[in-house]
Design a protein that fits this description.
By secondary structure, the protein is α+β, with helices and mostly antiparallel strands. The protein has one domain: 2-Layer Sandwich (Alpha-Beta Plaits). About 35% of the residues lie in helices and about 15% in strands. The protein is built from four helices and three strands, in the order E-H-E-H-E-H-H. It has a three-stranded antiparallel beta sheet. It starts with about 25 loop residues before the first strand and ends with a helix.
């Protein structure tokens, strides 16, 4: 067994970041900044990934340090998606939640 066979943490189920025709990664575009707790950010990330939209996150103003020390970022989270999927991601976040979806599971 070599180190290549090891899995650190949980395997990622996130969709891969898309590439252009030359094999270079599509540049990221800022989708939103959430100033709330990490739970809101995780909900948005999971929703985007379930729609097969890859996500990158950044914690501005030393927010990553806050995540290490406090367990959450006091400065919020910036969520980025590929430029080619920005419109689709924006539409997904803007779509209203249908109450019928909750009634089916109640």
């Amino acid at each position: 067994m070599s180190i290549k066979d090891w899995i650190f943490g949980t395997p990622s189920t996130a969709p891969p970041w898309p590439k252009d025709e030359n094999g270079k990664a599509i540049p990221p575009a800022l989708l939103t900044h959430l100033s709330a707790t990490d739970m809101e950010g995780q909900i948005v990330i999971t929703m985007l990934e379930s729609a097969n939209i890859p996500v990158m996150t950044q914690y501005p103003n030393n927010g990553a340090f806050g995540r290490v020390v406090l367990g959450f970022s006091g400065t919020g989270i910036d969520i980025y998606v590929p430029q080619t999927l920005l419109t689709e991601a924006t539409d997904l976040l803007a779509s209203p939640v249908k109450e019928e979806a909750f009634e089916e599971h109640a």
